[in-house]
Amino acid sequence: MRTTTYVGLIAGAAAVYLAVLAKGGDWTIFANPVAVLVCLGGTFAATTLSSSRSTIVHALSAVKAIFIAEGVSSAKVAEVMLKLARQAKAQGHASINPEESELKDPFFLKGLRLVTDGVEPARIEQLLRLESEILTEKRRAAERMFRLMGTYSPMFGLVGTLIGLIQMLKGLADPRAIGQGMSVALMATFYGVLLAGLLFLPLAGKVKTLDLDERLVRDQMLAGLLAIRSGENPENVRETLEVFAQKPAAP
């Protein structure tokens, strides 16, 4: 997850940078603080205005998961589940201590506590599926926020363009004013489109992919926990978990 994120950002930034330098271009002419202020300031202001605080928190959590945190792998889940299945089969559910689990994922720990407490499988499935839907809705809220930012960014680029054109028309008698106004006009549009196409909309797509991957892992956890709670043979648990390992990755 993190590898493709960084590779995509670096490749996109490098492509734009090399295009700017092509045929003797000067990258410094693309540095325009006023245009950046209009695009970023306007985008974040509009996004904040149209979003709730919880949505912003969900978006920050998604950014952390994409750029910093390492998600739980399907292989690790299968490994831990198989150990727990063997322990439960040999010593009973009561021998399992959730606090000593190798996996610290909150969803998994909640399910494991339900198993060790002897909750009925149907109730465990009901509670965990509800929990999974809530987590999915949080990711969807983050995705919607980034799509909004991808919509607002070009719009405020256009606002910057209009500001620059107004400044240019007002100072037609002053060649310097014309140059400054035209610079803001063109750079604002450039920044607005660039931020939408290289950052905000790709982040929205990445959050959707993150949600699909996380849901697959949660389904794997749920299937394993239900198998353990039902007292299935560890070999059957292993076969169940291998089904998830064979599923294609999220697009």
Describe this structure in words.
It is a single chain. This protein is mainly alpha-helical. Helices cover 79% and strands 0% of the residues. It folds into 2 domains: 1-31; 33-245, no CATH class. It is built from 8 helices and no strands.
Total number of helices: 8
Question: How would a textbook summarize the main sheet?
Answer: none
Low-confidence stretches: none
**How many structurally independent domains?**
2
Order of helices and strands: HHHHHHHH
Strands, total number: 0
Overall radius of gyration: 25 Å
Strand fraction: under 5%
Distance between the termini: 12 Å
Structural class: mainly alpha
**Arithmetic mean of pLDDT:** 87
Record the SSE blueprint.
Layout: H1 2-21, H2 33-50, H3 53-67, H4 74-91, H5 106-116, H6 121-170, H7 175-229, H8 234-245
Q: What labels would you give this structure?
A:
mainly alpha, 251 residues, 8 helices
Quick description:
79% of the residues lie in helices and 0% in strands. The chain has helices at residues 2-21, 33-50, 53-67, 74-91, 106-116, 121-170, 175-229, 234-245.
